[in-house]
Amino acid sequence: MKVVCAGGGPASLYLAILLKARHRGWDVSVHERNPAGATYGWGVTYWPEMLETLAAHDDVSARAIEKHSVRWNGGVAHIRDRTTTHHGDEGFAIGRHRLLEILAERATSLGVDVHYGHVLTPESPALEGDLIVAGDGSRSRLRDQHAEHFGTQVSLGNNRFVWLGTTRVFRSFTFAFVETDHGWLWCYAYGFDGTHSTCIVECSPRTWAGLGLDAMERADALKLLEDLLAEPLRGHPLIDRTDADGPSPWQRFRTVTNRVWSHGNLVLLGDAAHTTHYSIGAGTTLAMQDAMALARALSEPGTLPSALGRYERVRRRELLPLQSAARHSANWYENLTRYIHLEPHEMFALLGQRHSPLLPHIPPQLYYRVDRAVDRTQALRSLKGWLGPRVARLLQKK
Length: 398
Ligand SMILES: Cc1cc2nc3c(=O)[nH]c(=O)nc-3n(C[C@H](O)[C@H](O)[C@H](O)COP(=O)(O)OP(=O)(O)OC[C@H]3O[C@@H](n4cnc5c(N)ncnc54)[C@H](O)[C@@H]3O)c2cc1C
Hints:
Layout: E1 2-6, H1 10-22, E2 27-31, E3 43-46, H2 48-57, H3 59-67, E4 70-79, E5 82-95, H4 96-110, E6 113-115, E7 131-134, H5 141-144, H6 147-150, E8 153-156, E9 160-166, E10 173-180, E11 183-191, E12 197-203, H7 205-210, H8 218-228, H9 230-233, E13 238-239, E14 254-257, E15 262-263, E16 266-268, H10 283-299, H11 304-334, H12 344-351, H13 364-376, H14 378-397
Parallel strand pairs: 1-2, 1-7, 2-6, 4-10, 7-16
Antiparallel strand pairs: 3-5, 4-5, 8-14, 9-12, 9-13, 10-11, 11-12, 15-16
Helix pairs in contact: 1-4, 1-10, 2-3, 3-4, 10-11
């Protein structure tokens, strides 16, 4: 069996590892357009359970990922000049660069051909194989060539965001909301190694244009953001991508869905198949879980079309609650003014509830009070757990 994976992100690399580890005789290759070591983004978070899942699939890469990850504990929210904390949550983070390095090294050691600096187009001779995997990200060219068949839909979020790094190492998952003359601007930050953190800055289009960020030189924009976020950054700099003369790093989030996930021997994987808003910190995990499901389906007896069908059915079902959570989470930030004037501890509590399908339909303060009361009573907590998804389904049908 010859498997050609387009894109050297977590989805393709992890699939290549799992396939080659199970089927030593298969010819598996990965083709990445960027040079080795060049990638977008800073650190990515994941939840503790992910390490167990990774270890069950490939212990060698799981151990390397754990070794190079850092753990963050609890949450901190800076809202205006007040700070509120939340204990309990904990997760991991790793530099995207480091993660890809670990996966590429493991893939190569198993005998996968990993090629860098190789842009694949639908006409590329390299796309000859029994199975072609479009792991080429949310703007997948291989998918877009058959966009009608796949039923690809892309919707753009309203808010503008930029994915930056900083040398301030945040040990807790940190949010900071600052009020400007043109509305609110906020960041999410977490450490991902011993010296750096991710810092994603987001605001509404009105704030973005009002502050002049739409037309500002990149260095000036960075300076302005450093000034606005001086308190949580404690004087540390923000760091932009290295290609400072490239296109503007400000983006609108692209939510991608596809009606079907395969076309003949071409199959979609990871962000090429589906994206979930970054505020739920799950896209990398989901891309690697796609790889697990596809590798499993391909290893079971049966034809290629039946394997691709099984993969798609399993992943669609598993993704549904996360896609819903991601949609509500993105909407929460797009409707920040509904929550920002609450007391900081109330606002932070509802930030933690942003995935709830009920929250947009209930006055925030009432939701907060009922939620607190419910959490104090076991019976009501069970009722909430039972009722939530049902009401959500009813609301979706409207
Ligand atoms: C701001 C932000 C923050 C995020 N934070 C998190 C987080 O904390 N936790 C988390 O789990 N996820 C996070 N994500 C999501 C995560 O980055 C993606 O979901 C994940 O990288 C998807 O993996 P992938 O392999 O499918 O695609 P990608 O990682 O996008 O990889 C696709 C690869 O294909 C290459 N490529 C594209 N076209 C071609 C071509 N024609 N030929 C060859 N190569 C090509 C690209 O260069 C790229 O390397 C975040 C995303 C954003 C935008």
